Amino acid sequence: MKRALSAILTACVMFAVHPVPARSQEVSNRNLIFTNGTAEVTGQNDSAKIFIAVVTEDRKLERASAENAVKTKAVLTAVKGLTIKNLKLRTSNYRVTPQKDYKSRPPKIKGYEVENAVLVTMEGFEPGMLSKYVSRVIEVSLESGANTIQQIQFYLKNKSMLEKQALQQATHEAIERAKILAEAAGVKLKCIASLRSQPAYMPPQPRMLGAAEMKSDALAAAPPMEMGESRIRVQVSIAYEIAP
């Protein structure tokens, strides 16, 4: 019993020696009104990423690799030939996968699959032109030897203006709410004690198109593309000190 009492007294002394910071005490002793504002702003997407792949198969790795190299070169040449401004190309993945016959015991390699994936990036276009260019890139890629469109992702290149608009709207909303609360409570606002923001960018869901979907109309025309929008959502929290 004495030991337990001693432990409690020691804890109390330690708590007294280490008080909460002065700033926390100062804020907690104020009369404050807390509120927040939320805003969401949308903007038309102006950029796109297209993941194109050439997939080849053969019993011999050398033949599968050689065929893949020829087709990939043809795809790159065709896409570059479109002479689209600000278009960028880079290899995003290269994969060699042995194809096994699992009916054999032990399983034997019956061939190889070679995949060469290329990322096409286009940024800063008007929606109409971007849609047109994306369709053309897909069309010429499939005509030149690509057989898989792994993914198409539309996005907004510069989100800073959207974030600025959202922050302004959310802050104004928070301030107006604080004024309404103060008026309803019969008190006056003195000054802002704290102001915080919590931005959260919400990217659009990428549109996924696979080889089977693209093959049927590949030589006729690429499907029309809907650019969609990007969204910026922010929340602003505000604390107003009440005048005495």
Mind summarizing the main beta sheet?
Answer: 4 strands, antiparallel
- CATH architectural label of the domain at 45-157 and 206-224: 2-Layer Sandwich
Strand order of the largest sheet: 3-4-2-5
Q: How much beta, percentage-wise?
A: 35-45%
User: What is the radius of gyration computed over CA atoms, rounded to a whole number of angstroms?
Assistant: 30 Å
Quickly give the structural class: alpha+beta
Question: End-to-end span in angstroms?
Answer: 49 Å
Count of helix runs:
6
CATH superfamily of the domain at 45-157 and 206-224: Protein of unknown function (DUF541), domain 2
Low-confidence stretches: 1-26, 206-220
Describe the fold and architecture.
- This protein has 244 residues and is of the alpha+beta class.
- It has a domain at 45-157 and 206-224: Protein of unknown function (DUF541), domain 2 (Alpha-Beta Plaits, 2-Layer Sandwich), CATH 3.30.70.
- Helices cover 38% and strands 37% of the residues.
- The protein has six helices and seven strands, in the order ααββαββαβαβαβ.
- The chain has helices spanning 2-17, 22-28, 61-80, 127-144, 160-185, 211-215, and strands spanning 32-44, 47-58, 87-101, 108-122, 148-155, 189-202, 229-242.
- Strands 3-4-2-5 form a four-stranded antiparallel β-sheet.
- Strand 3 (87-101) and strand 4 form a beta hairpin.
- Helix 3 (61-80) packs antiparallel against helix 4.
- The chain is elongated and about 85 Å long.
- It starts with a helix and ends with a strand.
- The model is unreliable at 1-26 and 206-220 (pLDDT under 50).
